[in-house]
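Quick check before the chapter quiz. The format below is the same one you will see on the exam, so make sure you can read both the input and the output lines.
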Amino acid sequence: MSGVMIRALLVLCKACLLWMAVSANAHTVQPGIATLALDAARTQLSLRVNAEVIMAGVDVTQINDTDALEGDAAARYGDLRGLTDAALAERLNNDPAWLTGVRLQSPAGPLTLSLVDVAVEPQPDPELPRFTTVTLTASPASSVRLAWAPSYGELVVRERDGGYNAFLAPGEWSAMVSSGQAALSTWDVMSTYIVSGVAHIIPMGLDHILFVAGLYFFGAGRGALIAQISVFTVAHTLTLALASLAIVRISPAIVEPLIAASIVYIGVENLLRRGRTGLSRRLMLVFAFGLLHGLGFASVLSEFGLQAGAFGLSLISFNVGVEIGQLLVIAPLALLLGTWAARQDWYRAAVQVPASLAIAAVGAYWVLERTLLA
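Here is the expected output.
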């Protein structure tokens, strides 16, 4: 029986290694970000999107990152990604049909959108996604609601003055948004930011997922795991708050490679230390790394924005969502590997060591990708 279990766990570990290798490029498809501005003269909609993915006709609900593209879709995306920024902007201006999936409605009915500006963000590495902000206008309306085609993926919608924020599933309509509308209810703020916090761990936070998995594979028992998760939570909560208050500002170009390096360190230390040896030192390092990860959370939260008039509630709710995401990472590991298997002599060689090696290897690749290959 134990031999069968060992072989099953080895297969599981190999599957995990393959998944992490495939995910290593981390070219994750990000949600679109829509900003609405309503005034007496016009209705304005700004969209920050990966325009090449949409123009290539990719259904982003079927993929996690652009490396998963195959066949004609991969070829179309590659051709578009190979265009210069100016050439892409010209293509987008001359062929606005790619925006037909964007739908804006007032109480009186659908609004006709006109493309007025295209701004392509420079991204010199052709292997990484490039983002474009397009500005569209429509006739003035007292209130509007927004959706886009399900194939375009998830969408963050916010009102320019902070009266509305929402994280929409693919194809979902926003609520009616009006200029100067009343602040969202406590429940609306909490639910919106909790969902956003979870989403920034699963599926979008692959680096944070690997770091938390690395904490699990330290292998010092339940108490050590709880201690590590606790100090990590305290640390990233601290810097998330400080960065959101603009008290601490560090460039993502510095933070992101350091986050990747923290993953390498955690994976390597798992190979060198066993049991409770060095747990106090480990906790100090996890706290330091948690400070870095909090800055990473803050960078993605800055794109989503914090609810005007409910800064504290939205920040706390986002952090609660992050914690839920972390628990969703840990729980399957604990259920699969944290009971009988973890107490067996072969567990370290068959599970803990291969998993930690894979975590360190992926982290090392990300260090290179975010520094020398950037």
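If your answer matched, good. Residues 32-182 form one domain.
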